[in-house]
Amino acid sequence: MSRMLEEIDQQPAVLERALREGAGQIEEAVELIRRAGAEMIVIAARGSSAYAGTYFRSLAETILGVPVLRAAPVVRTTYNRSVAWRGAVMIAISQSGQGPDILAVVEDAADAGIPVIAIVNDEDSPLAAAADVVVPCRAGPEAITATKSYTAELVLLAALAAGWARDEELLRGLEAVPSAVADAIEAGKKWLEAGAGAELIGALTDCDRATVISRGRNLGTAREVALKITETGGVFTAGLSAADFLHGQVVLATPEVPLLALRPDGPIGASVDRALEAAAPYGARQWLIGGREMAGRARMLDLAYDLPESLSPLALVVPGQLVAEKAALARGRDPDRPNGLVKVIRTY
User: pLDDT tens for residues 290-335?
Assistant: First the structure.
């Protein structure tokens, strides 16, 4: 068994621990945001953590109506300029807490008096030391390929948004996340053993390109699943908005390019359906991971999760992690040692 698969299996326990042990720090972070009178949130993050930030953007903008921007570290590290984020609170998200570019942005913000919240797996990292409030992922040591720290970031960001908005539905939904993720892991494993799931692995074994689409609160999920397939299996995989797919990227809709759709129940589902309908005439081979609304559809993993749409990324991402792990092995690659990657990537 790969270490990646072991860590995928650990996620329900990690999520339960992150929520239980992090409740006090989430409250502290919410109070910091309220005291600051935040008119804007700035996300400082790279890679998978940036996709977690994409998820938080959707939550904050749809639930709270607060704009969320992503900092461009190159402004500080290469152009040596500062951005005047007046009225902002910065949320820095990192698994290692050691990336020099994210640290430079955080230190610049702190020097300007902008409050900083760090969501980080390593509580002893430089990023944690630079922040006003630290919310630890509590995921423990992790392989190069991030799985459990990513979902821990998602659940903590959801808890932060729920507390800030005083959203009772979201707060109640968080209690069901660990069991929903456990169910999604088991359903994903069974799906990949035979039938449509095994067919997807076969398609990813034989191709050199693939596409993952979704939208809204699952846009970051699509990008994260695409990244996992790319880095573990060596298949160039585009993670796209279903809406953007219709604006040009539909040219990827061919039999040679597997198309995986992450389709949550609710209003975003219809947007994903339109993209799939547009791709169908060109012979695109389509697979879906989603909820009850599309139960029984061909090549569909029906998760039947009992979560509000705002928490659906936590259920939808874990089968995508399983797809990436199994496809990497099928292609003769080690998902624990992706070519050219290390755990701490030092970008400037």
Answer: 998 877 787 989 998 999 999 999 999 999 999 999 999 999 999 9
- Position 258 scores a pLDDT of 97
Q: Are residues 187 and 61 in the same domain?
A: no
Same structural domain, 199 and 142? no
The structural domain count of the chain equals 2
Is position 184 within any domain? yes
Cβ contact 338:145 at 8 Å = yes
Is there a single domain that holds both residue 249 and residue 271?
Answer: yes
Q: What is the CATH number of the domain that holds 83?
A: 3.40.50.10490
CB 279 within 8 A of CB 286: yes
Q: Are residues 325 and 5 in contact, defined by beta-carbon separation less than 8 angstroms?
A: yes
Q: Which residues contact 278 (CB under 8 A, 6 or more apart)?
A: 245, 246, 250, 253
> What's the CA gap between 173 and 210, in Å, rounded?
32
Low-confidence stretches of the chain (pLDDT < 70) are 340-348
- Looking at residue 39, the DSSP 8-state letter turns out to be S
Closest by CA to 52, choosing from 297, 292, 217, is 217
Question: b/e string for 232-248 if b means 16 or more Cβ within 10 A?
Answer: bbbbebbbbbbbebbee
Instruction: Characterise 304 by phi-psi region: left (phi > 0), alpha (psi -120 to 50), beta (else).
Output: left
pTM of the model: 0.96
41 strand-pairing partners: 68, 89
> Distance (Å, rounded) from C-alpha 225 to C-alpha 243?
18
The answer to whether the beta carbons of residues 109 and 42 sit under 8 Å apart is yes
255 within some domain: yes
Residue 344 counted as domain residue: no
Using the 3D structure, point to which of 113, 141, 168 is the last residue of a domain. Answer: 168
Q: Which domain holds residue 80?
A: 3-168
Looking at the fold, whether 38 and 156 belong to one and the same domain comes out as yes
Contact 59, 217 (CB under 8 A): yes
Looking at the fold, whether 122 and 248 belong to one and the same domain comes out as no
Q: Which of 327, 14, 264 lies closest to 146, judged by CA?
A: 14
| φ, ψ (nearest 5 deg) of residue 214 | -170, -165
Q: Is 185 a domain residue?
A: yes
> CB-based burial of residue 226 (10 Å sphere; 0-12 exposed, 13-18 middle, 19+ buried)?
buried
